[in-house]
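Hello,

Following up on my earlier ticket. Below are the two sequence lines again, exactly as submitted.
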Amino acid sequence: MSKNKKLRITVEVFREAVLWIVGGFVALPFLWMTLGSFKTQAEIVRIPITFLPERWMFDNFYEVITLINVTRLFLNSTLIAVTTTVGALITSAMAGYAFAKLRFRGREATFMLIFITMIIPYFLTLIPSYVIVYRLRLINTYWAAIIPGLANSFGVFMMRQFMMSIPNDLLDAAKIDGYSEFRIFWEIVLPLTKPALASLSIFVFMWSWQDFLWPMLIFSNKDMMTLQVGINYLQAVRAGVLNYQYAMAGSTIAIVPVLLVFLFMQNQIIKGVTITGMKGGG
Amino acid sequence: MARVQLENLTKSFGKVVAVNSVSLDISDRSFVVLVGPSGCGKTTTLRLIAGLEEKDKGEIYIGDEEVSELEPKDRDIAMVFQSYALYPHMTAFDNIAFGLKVRKIPKDEIKERVEKTAEILRIENLLERKPRQLSGGQMQRVALGRAIARNPKVFLLDEPLSNLDAKLRVQMRGELKELQRSLGVTTVYVTHDQVEAMTLADRMAVLDNGFLQQYDTPKEIFERPSNMFTAGFIGSPEMNFVKCSFKNSTLDAGEFQLNLTKDLSDIIRDKASSSELTLGIRPQDISIGGVSEKTGDTTNIPAVVSFVETLGTSSIVHLSVGDTPLVVETAKFIRYDEVKGLKMNLKFDLNNIHVFDTNGDTIF
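Thanks for your patience. The regenerated structure is below:
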């Protein structure tokens, strides 16, 4: 074996090792949760820890289904996430188009204002948002979960940046060919924005699906709440005793749609990360 | 087919006046080129005709109709862009058919018109391709096809050839001129390339700083530029300009003097606002004699060679008369190392000299 080849193999082995180690760190909590969902509460908190369950407690899942109305909460979560995603896509694309391509007074100032809201932490807006929703008498309705997510400053920013790269000549050509502003947007610009729209839809869907704090604030009605809020209830569901196994089983159920989205749209997500330089979920 | 008229057309962007009171009369079926350096207002003028910009003042007529309040689609014009502006998600066929579909022309007729257009442009075999599968020249043809298929009153072309390589550009230039002649559609063409302007135009409009400098045939503009800007902009290499003063029928440039005929002297006396003038002479109107020996002969001007560009068919010789640089183009094949630093005799063709007033206007 030549010296060169040896070196190459060493580098290759080292690279693989690093990937496995980092991958392991990322996967560990996920694995812990999934395996934990099959353990008893006692086993979960026991020291020394056990990795694989002593006895596979499929009952945990059955318990979860009886303790909370999983189907109902699952549908709630889906309805809220899908509606939010569709709405945010429409508003982001339209606002992005206006900021990227239309000339109007105060355009840059308005955009800056929207842009600045991106750096305000989510938690700061919780109380004012709650007050607004409360005064509108929307507590315990789907609207309370959907409306705040309909306009997404990150989405507006992302669509604007993407649409700015579409040449103006293309829009001018369509104008001369006889298209109205809306048809230019709908038939020329939107088709060319598909990759960005796909990425944005994944981001928004995952954000909405994983959101916990806001739905917890606005939903007290057990039939209205989302899956994430329901899981939180599972922890303390039996007389003040912590029930990690149910919470873990519920989380394992809740992660399935996100996992499916990831499996089916892997390429799109990776593209989205490269377009925006940020990762989905949060 | 239509005549296009602009009357006192004005357009500002903020404080910059991009188009300043431009009036042009573009006759039916003619090919007019708007030419000038970047920022001169030529593209803005074209976009005003198209309706992509709103005028501040003035009128735009296409045919007999004042169109400046009409939407671009209602002006019956077609435009070709420098970037081609083909819709990336549509095939060449759909790109050409697009404007027809919007106008709700029956499907059969659209197909017929697209195919006929493709035949004219020899792109029949490319119709099913998307723009990214086409070369620059092919995209250019599809973009032209989109304009032709519409059969509009006026073609507006914005630097359509400048993204092509040099060889293809010359070829397309020829085809474009031929095409315009056979279709007979009034055409307004924007370019910064004066060679393109000279070869394509029936008449050319030279613009600078938003002002129309001159509007005439290429020959007339080349031979009788209306001012120093036009004289300098049109022609390659650029016209030589030498500051001089006029005294007793003589133009005195300091380093050399030119004796003028009585007729020319009379014109200067008649028109010039002062005795401080600028002499203009094209590089092609100076001839190089042998190596200079004599002195005191005012028609033979001794000049030192500083640099030579040998182009094969001609040579461009850079010389200096004292501190005054001059450029001469000669058909002779001159090699730099043979003439480096030599003193040569220059002869000005006095029939082709130009004299400009202090403000830059042409005296003759």
